[in-house]
Amino acid sequence: MNAKKRITIYDIAERLNVTASTVSRALSNAGYVNAATKELVLKTAAELNYKRNTLASNLRMGQTKTIGVVVPRINQNFFSNVIAGIEDITYQKGYNLIICQSDEQHQKEVKCVNTLINQHVDCIVISVSADSVSYQHLQNVIDQGIQLIQFDRVAEELETLKVINDNEQASYQAVCHLIEQGYKKIALLEGPQNLNIFRQRKTGYLRALEKYNIPITDAFIVENAWTKELGAEATRKLLSLPDLPDAIFASTSDFSALGVLETATAMGIKVPAELGICGYSNEAFTEITSPSITTIDQFSVFMGKTVANLFFQEMENNDTSVTPKSISIQPELIVRSSTRRKS
Amino acid sequence: MNAKKRITIYDIAERLNVTASTVSRALSNAGYVNAATKELVLKTAAELNYKRNTLASNLRMGQTKTIGVVVPRINQNFFSNVIAGIEDITYQKGYNLIICQSDEQHQKEVKCVNTLINQHVDCIVISVSADSVSYQHLQNVIDQGIQLIQFDRVAEELETLKVINDNEQASYQAVCHLIEQGYKKIALLEGPQNLNIFRQRKTGYLRALEKYNIPITDAFIVENAWTKELGAEATRKLLSLPDLPDAIFASTSDFSALGVLETATAMGIKVPAELGICGYSNEAFTEITSPSITTIDQFSVFMGKTVANLFFQEMENNDTSVTPKSISIQPELIVRSSTRRKS
DNA sequence: TATTTTTCTGCAATCGATTGCATATTGAAA
DNA sequence: TTTCAATATGCAATCGATTGCAGAAAAATA
Predict the structure, then answer these.
(1) Does A27 touch chain B (CB under 8 A)?
(2) pLDDT-based confidence at B137, cuts 50/70/90?
(3) Most exposed among A208, A279, B61, B156, judged by the fewest C-beta atoms under 10 Å?
(4) Which residues fall within 8 angstroms of residue A220, CB to CB, at 6 or more apart?
(5) CA distance B77 to A229
């Protein structure tokens, strides 16, 4: 690599017979600088193609104007949308993003978080990985005086800023909708229960059943079915029970719901007539399957924007004033063909 | 914000009655350090919860072990997959990623690139935005001695490392396939011609027609139809021509192809019997539409890995030895129901 | 034991930008 | 003309980690 030496403020200073101080002041628009000098500096900087060394600047200033984001999977729709939302806001404020992927592995997550701390980011935004158990690394972030914002999948016991979906309510609504459509034996595909979001979705499911006085059937609750394949497998199992369910709520994801749909279709079971299907996330494809899949929209881009805005708000009133520590976004049930039996 | 002072090597040094030099050497495993001293340093560092200040380190060392990535849209499947691929490799090597989004706007792209230069990233990976015209900002990157790697959408005139898809060949194959299936009047939905990829795809289309001695019908070539909506609109236009096409190659994206499919279906035109449809990108949904859509897989994650590996290779043999400057990945035509007329 | 080599540690400079303090210049007010 | 404020610039320290050089201590060799 051609490691040419970069132009620094000293080069500019030398050329103009002033000191670096003056150049610095001219470039950063701070303090007193003669108008003519300033113009000269600016002109010379442009000529020499000067680029400020952010490292040096940040080191001196003690802040990096950088936000670190840790998500389980960058290329998962929900997360990439959240990131896009964050980026939208932070870009406007002149902040940078460093993005890390935990790959759903606790150990990698810890490593990512530590790297971000070392990088002196001003804030860490995280959605914890599925196999997280300990949260020492997050406590660490707080101890280092770095703003920590959790979103979606959060460690509830940690006192941090949080942006979450009201999963329980959304799930409750979805199941109520199924019941109102005449489904009576509703199965639940649930996700890893160490994640708050999946616990909440389960609670919503149970609450809806309770409201309508529908007994809970243990066999209808299937653990850990959050990929298309696992959804398909769960469906095969459910549909071979002596007492069949008449609806399946894939609370884990739309992919899981897709697995359900494909399996049911392959088995010659009619959706929604014989089996109702509801997913979670409002992935783009849910609209174009046949039948289209009822699901829950999480407003992911908006969620990202909310996270970023929360950070900037918190920055501004650093007077430890009491700001709401947890923002809850109301997801929306999107009813489509896969659950519509009544007009 | 609680800006607690962080522990530095000086704090450790003071506590142990040695100098920062020794602490530094102990922590970075470089130079001579007494084994006992080293152990003490390590122990104390852990106790005090010391985190190295990467800013200071990078400033001194002149390298950041960071790669900047600029893409048009973070949350577009192809790009988020490429990023995931890059991340996979760079993570293993202990490198960080800074991700920026140009939003398909040239001006924002320039700003992103400049920020990355300021951040002293070791490498910039970019796929240019749709409305790019000038490439001065990229020339800048090179001039600053930063490794530049272009992928997918590249400015061909710039002499940089490139990782591209063989778009022309893929497009050629797709159209040949259509012709072999008996389609004779094939329309093309093309993308912005200032992007190399769309020019290449058009060339492939023309080459295929030529091979089979099919005359070019200007009315069958529709400009700028790269969203679902634009694809739908183009389809309405095409299907109201006096002389109808019998196939549409949405060379821009699968979304465009989806627009075609939906419009055709709504108009009561049978796919693939009356109209063949081929998309581009192998988005997840192409598999689950009915009929499923023939498309081209770009191996996006692999592409990301290739980009990252290329960077590290280039790093290692910095002796300006001649490495291939351009890697071409062969995309794969995935034939599905939307174009299958013959068994 | 004397000499050379190896190991250990400290000193001080460095990376590039920023900033408090001091000094110098200019201009305005008394 | 004197006095004070405002403006302009320089000096030098600072942010935290790294490293070449030098001297001291320990170990190895003659």
Answers:
(1) no
(2) very high
(3) B61
(4) A185, A186, A187, A188, A238, A245
(5) 21
Distance CA A23, CA A33 (A): 9
Please report, for chain B, how many H helices and E strands are present, in that order. Answer: 12, 12
- Residue in the block written with tokens 């749909």: A261
Q: Do B53 and A59 touch (CB under 8 A)?
A: yes
Residue A1 pLDDT exceeds 70: no
Provide the shortest C-alpha distance from residue B54 to chain A (in Å): 5
- What is d(CA A75, CA A290) in angstroms, rounded to the nearest whole number? 25
**B51 vs B323 pLDDT, higher one:** B51
DSSP code for B69: E
Contact of A11 with A27, CB cutoff 8 Å: no
| Other Cβ atoms closer than 10 A to B65 | 16
Residue type, B83: I
Residue pairs spanning A and B at CB distance below 8 A: 141
Tokens of residue B195, six digits: 């992007």
Q: And the tokens for B217?
A: 């019908």
Task: Tell me which chain B residues have a C-beta less than 8 angstroms from the C-beta of A96.
Answer: 98, 100, 115, 119
Are B285 and A288 in contact by the 8 Å Cβ rule? The answer is yes
Torsion (CA) B59, B63, B66, B69 in degrees, nearest 10: 110
Interior/surface letters A18-31, b for 16+ CB within 10 angstroms, e for the rest: beeebbbbbbeeee
Rounded to whole angstroms, the maximal C-alpha distance in chain B is 91
User: Is residue B4 packed enough to be buried (19+ CB in 10 Å), middle (13-18) or exposed (0-12)?
Assistant: exposed
> Which residues in A lie closer than 8 A to residue B284 (C-beta atoms)?
285
**Alpha-carbon distances of A17 from A22, A23, A37, B270, rounded to whole Å:** 10, 10, 11, 78
Residue B42 corresponds to which tokens in the numbers above? 């390590």
Closest among A328, A339, A335 to A197, alpha carbons compared = A328
Task: Count other C-beta atoms under 10 Å from residue A232's C-beta.
Answer: 20
Q: What per-residue confidence (pLDDT) applies to B99?
A: 86
Q: Kindly report, residue by residue over A235-281, the tens digit of the pLDDT.
A: 999 999 999 999 999 999 999 999 999 999 999 999 999 999 999 99
Candidates 3.20.20.140, 3.40.50.720, 3.40.50.1470, 3.40.50.2300; CATH matching A64-164+300-329: 3.40.50.2300
Asked if strand D comes closer than 7 Å to A58 Cβ, the answer is no
CA distance B125 to B156: 15
CATH class, B167-298+333-339 region? alpha beta
Whether the Cβ atoms of residue B129 and residue B73 lie closer than 8 Å to each other: no
Rg (CA), chain A: 26
Query: Backbone phi, then psi, for B55, in 5-degree steps?
Result: -60, -55
d(CA B323, CA A1) in angstroms, rounded, equals 13
